[in-house]
Every structure is written in structure tokens, then in C-alpha cells.
Amino acid sequence: MALLNRIPHRPERVRLLDVSRETRSSRPGLLLAAAGALVAWGVHLLVPAVPMLTAAVVLGIAVAHLPRLRDVVRGPARPGLSLAGRRLMRIGIVLLGLGLGLDQVVKLGWATVLMVTGVVAATFFGTLWLGRRLGLPGDQPLLIATGYSICGASAIGAVSQVSGSDEEDVASSVALVTLCGTLAIAVLPLLQSPLALSDPAFGRWVGASVHDVGQVVATAQTASPGALGEAVLIKLMRVALLAPLVAAVAFSLRARRRGVRTPSGRRPAPVPLFVAGFLAAAALRATGTLPDLALEWAHTTQEALLAAALFGLGSAVHLPTLARTGGRAALLGLGAWVMVAGVSYVGVLLTM
């Protein structure tokens, strides 16, 4: 009887042990991400023209390729750096909502919602068509189209679970989307003045055209806090379209199960939790109950979390892998990049 009483508790103990092991394995990477954020802050203090978040991305890429540090980045620090790139980024985005009011969301209007939906649809189907015309093998056209139209590597991973794509197709697609998204951090700010975009318009353009949430933050913050806020709002609209897009892909492939399941077997939320958290934070800000000191502390915490997350994302970039994506894939990536930038630019001009 005593033995039977202990059996129900065993799975719970196993889960606790797994959480404990994950926490221990993440410590080196989290400490490295925190150190990277601190160094990025120091760089910004020494050279104010270099934004803290941009410095964090560049430092992450540099650390991943330095002879002595790259083994640490790819080895013991990898779990924590990956955790920083995912979890800390989402927490930072939630806190970013405290800097915005729901009145700003309402001001975007239906025209903006239709613009974002149009950009996603045009990019997805245009990239898919171009990839097939170029003769890319396997599911690469589908995966690259998903990554460019929604949210980069996250969208590719979600669709690959439905399509059962080959690991090499997934890896090459993620590498290509990561490369173009990283280049956007440096290229798009240089185009703001020639394209005569105001800071809010630039933020919308970035949010509608850059792939990953972290890359959107790193690119838009080079203009102004207002541009960053607009970019995140537009980007979160695109992220919210991930669930219906993946469901549509599943249906088109005649998947037997309804919707999409995570590796754990649970259905993902229709809207990512950090999106809901961002909107809840914006609603809290709209009440006017938070004191200025609390908002200042939230802003400081947000900057630190985003810097650590972007350092983690930068450390995942592997330049030799990106160089092996192939000529046709690179051509598709360039074409898709021009497509999403061009369509979103026209959409921003029509809705501003």
C-alpha cells in the first residue's frame, strides 16, 4: 500500500527534477547574456550614437565567433543564451506595453489591420511562388515564405511541425531568414532619410517588413522610442497571424489532426501569451494608476531584458552556416526581402 501511495507522486518529482536540471544548465548562458547587456550599456555610455540594443546584437555575433569564447557559446552557455533570446525577449516586450496606451492601438484602425494582413498574404504567396519557380527542393519555399511573412525562425519551426519537413530544409531556411533579418538591423535605418519616412512611419515599416521580434526591436529603436512603439504594435499584429497561417497550411496539407500541436502534445494558444501580456500592460498604462517612478523602473528593466535577449539572439548567428545556404536559396531570400520591404512600404504610405 505504501508503494502504491508513492507512485502518483513520482511523475511530479520527475518534473521538478527536470526543471531543476534546466535551471542549472541555463545559468552559464544567462550570466553571459547579462554580461553582454552590461557591456552593451557601457558601449552606449562611451559612444551615445551607438544604441544599447544594437550594441548587444553586434556583441552577441562577435562573441559567437571569437576563438576562445565560441566554444563556450556553442557548449555550456547555449541553453541559457537560447532561453534569454526567447523568455527575456517576451518579458521585455510585455514591459514595453507599459510605454504605450490602448488609445494608440485603437488609433491604428482597420486600415492598418488590413495593411498588415495584406503584407503577410502578399509576402507568403509571392515567396512561395518564387521559390517554386527557382526550383528549390523540398519544403524550402514553404518554410522561407512562412519565415519572411510572419516571424522568422519561430514561424518556420511551427510550420515544419505540420509539414514534417526535412531537418536540412528547416536549418537552411532558418539560416537564410536569420541572415536577412540581421542585415535589416543595419540596412533599414540607412534608408529612412532617402525614403522620407517620419519616425512613426519608419517604425511601421520595420514592424511590417522585418522578420523576428528581436530584430524589429533592434532596428526600430535606432530612430526613436515612438518608432519602436509603432514597430512593436505592427509586428505583434503579424505574430498574431501565425496561428491562422499554420492552421491553413495544416489544412492544405490534409493533416489528420486539427490545428497544430507542440512537441509536448498541447495545442498552442491562438494568440501568444506575450502578445496578450503586452496588450494587458498597455491597458494598465491606460488606466493612469501607475506612478511615474514605476514606469521609469519598468523602462529600465525592459531595456536590460531586451539587451540580454538580443545578445542571446546574436550569439545564435553562425556565419559559416549562412554562407552555405546555396545560390538559389540566397536569390529567393533576396527576392523575398525586396518583396516584403516594398509591399510594406507601399502599405505604410497608404495608411499613414
What does this structure look like?
With 352 residues, this protein is an all-alpha fold. It contains 17 helices and no strands. Helix 7 (140-149) packs parallel to helix 9 and helix 11 packs antiparallel against helix 12 (225-240). The longest helix has 37 residues, at 10-46. The termini are far apart.
How many individual β-strands?
0
Largest sheet: none
Number of helices: 17
Unreliable spans: 1-9, 14-19, 255-260
Class inferred from helices and paired strands: mainly alpha
Report Rg.
21 Å
Bulk shape: globular
Order of helices and strands: HHHHHHHHHHHHHHHHH
Distance between the termini: 71 Å
- The overall pLDDT average reads 80
Roughly how much helix do the residues carry, as a percent range? over 70%
In percent, how much strand structure appears in the residues? under 5%
Write the layout of secondary structure elements.
Elements: H1 2-6, H2 10-46, H3 52-63, H4 70-74, H5 78-96, H6 102-133, H7 140-149, H8 153-163, H9 167-191, H10 199-209, H11 213-220, H12 225-240, H13 242-252, H14 273-286, H15 292-315, H16 319-323, H17 327-351
Helix pairs in contact: 2-3, 2-5, 2-15, 3-15, 5-14, 5-15, 6-7, 6-12, 6-17, 7-8, 7-9, 7-17, 8-9, 8-13, 9-11, 9-17, 10-11, 10-12, 10-17, 11-12, 11-15
